[in-house]
Specification:
Layout (H helix, E strand, L loop, with lengths): L1 H14 L1 H21 L1 H8 L5 E7 L3 H14 L4 H13 L2 H10 L2 H4 L2 E6 L4 H5 L6 E5 L3 H11 L8 E4 L4 H26 L4 H6 L3 H12 L5 H13 L2 H15 L2 H7 L4 H29 L8 H29 L3 H18 L10 H7 L3 H13 L8 H21 L8
Parallel strand pairs: 1-2, 1-3
Antiparallel strand pairs: 3-4
Length: 424
């Protein structure tokens, strides 16, 4: 009986041209128009490089440490002209100076990392700044310890403190990549310099730019307008599925079809379950068609298949739950007023907050946060996160939002469903 009910509702949907036009034709047309019309705006902005903000806190300088370095060299028996020559060499090969002048100031790295210098007493305040992606703290005596380790094989590690932000893993990874390459360069500099290769050349030839580009490639890709609006229309137009199914259910009540089903032994629970499953299946098919259109017509390369399956299936289940709830509300109100309000007001508000037409975060971060707690906004943010190349774990908070709505819809549909029959 359940499959018969689902089949009946599917046939009603297919035989009506209006639902097919709204659920399939309209979103595809809008995807095409918006993708082409706004491609220049969104895609040009996407060409700008991601730039991380690095704060350099140097608790010492060459001038401050020169006296202690000279004293150490004299204790090692180096005096006179050799001492002056070695001091000059050490100053020229100062790893911090090479980092600032040869690496971070290079044209290749400047577009990825901006550097700001701060005083040591500001360190605690800087660590609380969410705009800072990384802090490199150079402790006192770093240069002296480097000289002892690199030139005299002393068992002293010239340690540095690197603090990375948890707010933006991509920018933090860029900083970590460059600093790691630099650290590798200066730890290997002595052995290579003994082979006749200057230290500055050793450290200048680390594959820092390739590492940065690899970080970007591995972690995040830009979202073009075609992906953005395909996802935006996908989550928005899926919200119309429950309205159509609830409308058909009300027609069945008006035409006394529902009464005949009840007389035939179909329980209200089974009827509501059929609406739930039908809504889930229709939304799933709708989303698959739209994603396929994006792939074959717009040449979108969808990545993160596992994450996409989880999100699309979860959102479809939510749509099914919403269809069951709207059907219940229709039966209680005995009119199509709720559907009109839902289609005309609720869907529009959700589409705006969820970012279907514009990136709401460009207007207000607060509105964007609110949008992530709407079902369509949660699904859209989750899909875009996967399409940026982020890990699967990033979607679970958004899935929790979706299944929270599913639970609420199902619970209300059960509690509010009329127990004494439905008449119009």
């Amino acid at each position: 009986m359940l499959f018969s009910l689902i089949g009946k509702q599917m046939k009603m949907l297919i035989r009506n041209k209006q639902p097919l036009i709204i659920l399939l034709v309209m979103p595809i047309v809008l995807i095409t128009i918006l993708s082409l019309a706004l491609a220049g705006v969104m895609d040009n902005g996407a060409e700008e490089a991601i730039q991380a903000r690095l704060v350099l806190v140097d608790e010492s300088t060459w001038e401050k440490e020169k006296a202690s370095i000279q004293e150490f060299l004299e204790k090692e028996g180096i005096i006179g002209p050799p001492l002056e020559a070695l001091l000059t060499q050490i100053e020229n090969n100062n790893p911090i100076q090479l980092l600032e002048n040869n690496i971070l100031a290079s044209s290749e790295i400047e577009k990825y990392i901006s550097v700001v210098h701060k005083k040591p007493e500001d360190l605690d305040t800087i660590r609380q700044d969410k705009e800072v992606d990384g802090i490199l703290s150079v402790p006192p005596s770093f240069r002296l310890n480097y000289v002892k380790s690199a030139y005299f094989d002393k068992q002293i590690e010239p340690d540095l403190d690197l603090y990375l932000s948890q707010e933006n893993e991509i920018r933090a990874s860029i900083i970590q990549s460059v600093i790691s390459e630099w650290q590798y360069g200066f730890t290997q500099s002595l052995a290579l310099s003994k082979a006749g290769l200057p230290i500055e050349e050793v450290m200048g030839n680390t594959k820092k730019v390739e590492k940065v580009e690899q970080v970007l490639e591995d972690h995040e890709r830009e979202i073009p307008s075609s992906i953005y609006y395909t996802v935006g229309m996908l989550v928005m137009f899926a919200l119309y599925v429950p309205a159509f199914l609830a409308g058909f259910a009300l027609q069945e009540v008006q035409w006394k079809v529902y009464d005949r089903l009840i007389l035939a032994g179909v329980s209200s629970t089974l009827y509501t379950l059929s609406i739930f499953i039908t809504g889930t299946l229709v939304a799933l098919v709708q989303q698959i068609i739209m994603l396929s259109y994006g792939k074959f017509a717009l040449k979108i390369e969808w990545i993160g298949l596992e994450g996409m399956i989880v999100i699309v299936l979860s959102y479809s289940i939510f749509v099914g739950g919403l269809a069951a709830l709207l059907t219940t509300l229709q039966f209680r109100s005995k009119s199509d007023g709720i559907l009109n309000a839902f289609n005309g007001f609720v869907v529009s508000i959700f589409a705006f907050l969820g970012g279907s037409f514009i990136n709401i975060g460009d207007i207000s971060e607060t509105l964007a946060n609110i949008g992530d707690f709407t079902p369509n906004g949660a699904a859209m943010t989750a899909i875009l996160s996967i399409q940026k190349g982020e890990e699967l774990a990033v979607i679970w908070p958004f899935m929790a939002v979706l299944y929270g709505y599913v639970s609420l819809c199902v619970l209300l549909a059960i509690v509010l469903f009329p127990r004494r029959g439905v008449t119009v």
